[in-house]
């Protein structure tokens, strides 16, 4: 006779086994669905319905195993083969995958990018339109993917670091909507070949130093497109190459695990305790997932049969993860053959239904627009003088197009309208023109909008609060203005963090943070290694999680090291997620005049052309800089603030409302009124201009001096052209190379503002030399514009 407790144990055991069996079969179903999605998606590209495809086939089982331990609050910072992760975590579904493949601009269909990114680029929103952070601690989160290889690594460091800060910084404890006491992990995924990128190594080193909850999964399929791993990685293994980073007792570093991408049970057995350790101890880890396959090759742009041997292809077929999982299920009596066949058939149906639904949602509104166009174009045939044959041919061609695109409709309408300009007053032509204008505006909004935040999240909508000064203003050094400002800021805003090289203990190289680490703590104001790239990534990840980081690049010349994540990730984020994600990162640096090739840079042309989507602030002094920081911290947009390197010890008046006054972005300030010539500049050049203008005034030439204050945005109210209407002469001057910042300002005023209409003489640009600045005071004099240059050029203009 079976005892009651033994019976209960047997029942519990059977129930546990049944739950386990259901979970395994559900995982197999998901693996099959993801595989079918990849197979169908490739066909859609090859038949022309989509432009390009890159898929996660061969990685399904490993990604499902990883996703089992992905919890609410966690973040994914991955790459473009993570479709199974997205499906397994619920971040995406197959229909959304196909909508993105078709570039559907409707965010209800492609919520990750609104048709702006290619397939498998996933993103989850982090803030609403009213400026409120979403409950990230309760969500499964994904940072917006990028195509640049290893570009996801720097921000992964910041996403993981945020968990450490939420756990360690007392002032953040009540922000439970953003974090559950720092228990969140950042799951970073990367292809094995991309571990050759410096981004990977710098991030791994920083993670090992900082000890943050970062789980890095390397999907190793043995190739980088066609290049075998032996040409990519020392010792032919990233885990072996990183062995010196392995954490041991009494050291930092990270744990290293080796997994087989086809071994479902083995991966789950390793991952469960490993992920738990990361979550509890914040020890980072590398998971080298080996023996991954790529059944369809790298992408739709080529065939892997061109570079893989017959033996390799045969091995990949034998070790296909889905096939291996299927065999394991049967060997362990978790299912019978008939049940697996049903699962596989259902997976095909699921993928086909998703493809069909996504295509119908994409094509139906376009076909409706085709009919609207035809209904409006046909009456043009009856207009006296119309090119009937051309109109009819245009309509026939569009009707014959089985898969029309929006551009086809617009091109058809434009081609008819341009040939009937002489009939533009006819009602039929006017109706077609109105349709074209409306449709074009609608589609431009679909494809050209949201480079920046809007509404309350926009820095352009922050109320202007002028600086106020006492009856007898306190006059102090510029760096002391910033020091007092940052002290007040960190006292009153617990979300603000500052970090960079020499920022902490010594208070930055120009003393803006002097003594503040001791007062506010080493987590709030921190030193970093010399690693500009991952300093930017550190700030990006923190900003994505609701903190307000001020990430410092010590000198503007070294921004090049950190420019890639700022350009590819931050600057494009609002645009490529169609306004779903916000990254309110502030990058603080210093530049312009000082001494030497790498400490006096002003590469503004490079910056403004690579950072469209960020604000670029160029304050002439430290009071202006403080006001710009105030403005930015009241909005939710990223910005670069370039303080004047030679201005820290110049005397300035201290505002009494230091923490509340704001400097509006995109609004130039007229520093001096004048009648004869307008001089436009910014930053350290304002003092050079003022010196030259003093001489010109002695010579009877009246100059109007304008400080643009920000280059992005630039003079949104057209203040400069209003000055030009008065003076009819204009000079643009800065410290960039010829054709750089001055050419940009020239184009903005002459073309965008129509300034050419008000010129009496040729406009001028005065920049630095084409070479890097030479060292020493004489080097500065001959490399950069000086007061004598200002006088000479203005006098030439007056004599013209």
TrEMBL record:
Q: Which UniProt keywords are present, listed alphabetically?
A: Oxidoreductase, Pyruvate, Thiamine pyrophosphate
Q: Which cofactor does it need?
A: thiamine diphosphate
Citing just one GO molecular function, the answer is:
branched-chain 2-oxo acid dehydrogenase activity
The protein's matches in InterPro entries, at most eight in alphabetical order, are given as: DH_E1 (IPR001017), THDP-binding (IPR029061), Transketo_C/PFOR_II (IPR009014), Transketolase-like_Pyr-bd (IPR005475), Transketolase_C (IPR033248)
Q: What is its EC number?
A: 1.2.4.4
Any one Gene Ontology biological process term? branched-chain amino acid catabolic process
Domain Transketolase-like pyrimidine-binding: where? 476-650
User: Sorted alphabetically, which Pfam families does this protein's record hold?
Assistant: E1_dh, Transket_pyr, Transketolase_C
Give the matching SUPFAM superfamilies: Thiamin diphosphate-binding fold (THDP-binding) (SSF52518), TK C-terminal domain-like (SSF52922)
The record describes the protein's role as: E1 component of the 2-oxoglutarate dehydrogenase (OGDH) complex which catalyzes the decarboxylation of 2-oxoglutarate, the first step in the conversion of 2-oxoglutarate to succinyl-CoA and CO(2).
The name on file for this protein is 3-methyl-2-oxobutanoate dehydrogenase (2-methylpropanoyl-transferring)
- Protein's organism: Chitinophaga dinghuensis
